[in-house]
Hints:
Elements: H1 2-10, H2 23-42, H3 45-56, H4 62-92
Helix pairs in contact: 1-2
Amino acid sequence: MALLVLAYALSPIDLIPDFIPVLGQLDDLLLVPAGLWVVLRMIPPTVLADARAEAARAPQRLARSAWGLALILLIYLLLLLLVWRWWARRTAA
């Protein structure tokens, strides 16, 4: 069910096309939250409680995530630098 809601939210195909004023966005505004509400009701309470407890412990792991973020940003910066140098040499020649 969660995958269906996600597919509908990301799909360019809607029940009512978006180019129709007001109604086109209204179906997304109503159907996606209603689908999320149904999905949340389908999750067993124990699973939901475990997920919320895990989310509460997430700030403790933030330091590891910050190092990972720094590493990924460094890789992107290096790739950007390489592309920029390649482009500069290509246009100079």
